[in-house]
Structure prediction request, 640 residues.
Amino acid sequence: MLDLYQTEGLLPESSRILRHSVREFLEKEVRPGILEAFHTETPPDMRALAPKMGALGMLGAFIPEEDGGPGGSYCDYGVVCQEAERLDSSLRSFIAVISALVMYPIWRFGSEAQKRRWLPALAKGEAIGCFGLTEPNAGSDPASMETKARKVQAGWVLKGRKQWISEASIADFAIVWAKTEEGIRGFLIERGTEGFETSTIKKKGSMRASDVGELILEDAFVPDEALLLKSSGLKTPLSCLTQARFGIAWGALGAAEDCFEAALNYAKDRKQFGAPIASYQLVQKKLVDMFIGITQGKLLVARLARLMQEGKASFQAVSLAKKVNVALARECAAISRELLGANGIALEYPPIRHMMNIESVYTYEGTDDMHTLILGEALTGIGAFAKEA
Amino acid sequence: MKLLVAVKRVPDPEAKIRVKPDGNSIVTEQLKFVINPFDEIAVEEALRIKEKLGGEVVVLSIGPSEAAEQVRTALAMGADRGVLVKTDGAYADPGIIARALAEVAKQEGFDVLLMGKQAVDTDYGQTCGMLAQILGVPCASFAYKVEVEGESKRLVVVREVDGGLETKLIGMPCIVTADLRLNEPRYASLPGIMKAKKKEIRQISLEELGVEVTPKLRVESLEEPPKRQGGRKVGSVEELVRALHDEAKVI
Prediction:
């Protein structure tokens, strides 16, 4: 699409080359099946797809080579997310979960043994993990979680329930966050552990090409080695969310672009009252609104990627980009759906699928409101999250 | 094996091409550029030969300094190093390109020089023939399958011809041009891209190579294809035949 601010030129050459590879790969391998996957709520076979994504370096892009990652940058991770979400949010979800919520905590908070065992396998797409923080009664307020880990001889016993967990039913293991006597800590629980079960949530109206489920822990015992040694307190899982939100800020742009392009092409083709609808002022205004938003969004994430790479991005800066770009994607999906008229409700065209998906993205990884409060606190110094201090 | 591959920077075949008001060049602003797809196939073939028999793959390109991105992409696919001959905005016709490639090929030395059968921007398909003539080596065009025959320094090249396949045996050094079905090129992966950052791209100008830069070919004009006319419904087979014969003049 038109790139008046030459935003692509703000990215390093390596990320531009990667974008080309990733787009070609996704168009060939994923595009043909995505509509059916969404329609029938049957996610693509990630066991087959993940190794191919891994070979391209799409998983944990920012993790250095010496730690078993592809050795790229945050910009590379962003570009991968953007290209993935052009296709479908579910695919970007998978990438962000593996990269930011599974590989990142192992990389930052895990033991050497955990890193050696899991990071190379995750980067290659040979292992799949998931991340359990949200619970039926603890969403925006994770500190109120009910899952507990009790110290016993040579290990820990976990009890609780995690909900809305992407890749729950296909993951080889879960990173589960639980309350201990020393605060919230992370545990790596492998499938097959006694007392650990997963289930799939069906009949979703969004993210239908995604595997979403629950983790059920009924006095599941894990050895001492399962603890993420360096995890301490709620800030640990929150730091993982910052990584994921960064990927979402890029990904949402991809969804917005796909909606915009669908609307632009349609408006130029579709004739009413004897002329293409793109020739009418009301339609042009809608196209321009989307285009301006996308241009601004691209500038935002290009700068954010640089800050992330330099270790200078605050979690508030990431909140801002997540909030702005997801709201943009939601707006673009709605406008694009509208411009396509009746065709806009057909899954053959992408806007309605993006529209349904973005509803999830709008409230996961921090609801839009929570990001407003994060920024409100940054401005005023007064937290407005809870009724009482 | 010393393998050279020539790659050309061309507009993305998916992109919509617009002719400039001057009528003999195209609008390049906002245009995405890629490696000529047939050259990408040539890179892949060179990498496969190297993976089988060992050796070195050197990527050559002739074009603006931005063509370094296409050379870098080929390095990210796995080529060892690159040479970019910069034209600095001057028009290089197939003759200039062939002479420049010949100079670099002589400097480098090679067993096999591969390239696409044609570039998808100009569709000339002339460079390989001219280059073979200048270098005095055989050229097998439109390769569908390439195999190195034992230790004999000969290449078995299967070509798609009308109604079947033709197998050629040519001695090295030689030139091979890649056809569409020779292979399916690999993607440049992120680890490959990171490795490519450390690989050398030697940059050199046409003048430094001592190549005459006055083109013998001049583009007179470029025209966009005519706008598609809307279809129309005919009432009967007779009317259809009449329209095809009298108006469209296709039967």
